[in-house]
Amino acid sequence: MQFNEIKEKDNKYLFQNYGRLEVAFDHGKGMYLYDVDGKEYMDLVAGIAVNSLGHSHPKWVAAMQEQVARLCHVSNLYHIKEQAIAAEKIASVTPGDLNRVLFVNSGAEANEAALKLAVRSTGRKKVLSALNGFHGRTAAALGATGQPKYQQTFEPLIAQSFQYFDYNDIEGLKALMDKDVAAVLLEPLQGEGGVNPGNPEFFKTVRDICTDNGSLMIVDEVQTGMGRTGKWFGIDNFGVVPDIISMAKALGSGMPIGAIATTDELYGTLSPGTHGTTFGGNPLVTASASVTIDIMKEERLVENSYEMGAYWRDEISKIESDEIVDIRGLGLITGIEMRTKANDFRKYCLENGVLVNVCHGNTVRLIPPLIIGKQHCDVLIGLLRNFLE
Q1: Is 134 a catalytic residue?
Q2: pTM assigned to the model
């Protein structure tokens, strides 16, 4: 099918709720995607931090083919072998004693589950989260998302339980904290908010404040989890163990899966009948999670994320230009804040066969597959130099 025919059907039959670029992809391999006309693109977006193994990783493909041929779905009315195996593998990489796993279908649903667990286990009604955070588009997750642009016109669906403070501002948090706070929900690095890393001392203090007040600390690792920041989870960069972690995106290498991990003390709050989902943790998606974790361990992709991210930011920082305001990030999530030309640079990259993303106005966000090598980083650096010159 040619691009114009795809676009015609898109315009005729689909909701027009996405600002799509003028390209449609046919297949991918490793670091590269190929459009319907056969043009090659180096992918530095990875489906927004999803395809950490790259595209069509042979071991992942083989595992998916085997699972599809054997069993895709049964209800959570029954024990599911693949789900139990995946939960054990997740528990092998989560911090502290977060070894109880609940599977859902997405990052927003993971945050919804975490919030339900928090208010049910504490019996409290307030949730604190950071301005410019992003936690999803379902009702409670949208309420926790401290960005009015996402909330406007949906206010009737948003509970008045949410209050917001500035990210990394401990005094702002303290001013809102009281004995009615069920949870504090934070990203270890704000991705949609412009690639803003958390302050280690801030997160350590949040942990202490939550403990002292009997509130739960929830860390949203939907974008930062699974090796993206150079650690298995972003919070590992700060030496802090929260009460609940939410995850999704890279967990399934493209399969629709999300999860939360919590402790033996908390998980029982969601007893049978209190929460559930038809598709959550079915055999296909949990088999994907298992093989994803296996490959990441075998190929040392978490370590590669740390090493390549440090190399990339160091090389980018050598570029002298008034257009570059700041360079920030952890592991393989890097933000290049520009004065005015982020979208122009994205267009320039697309024309030259490289995919990058822009978030929060003028920040170029680089979130490539974790298999990336220096040669791929250097291509982007060369394009950036040429663009700025």
Answers
A1: yes
A2: 0.96
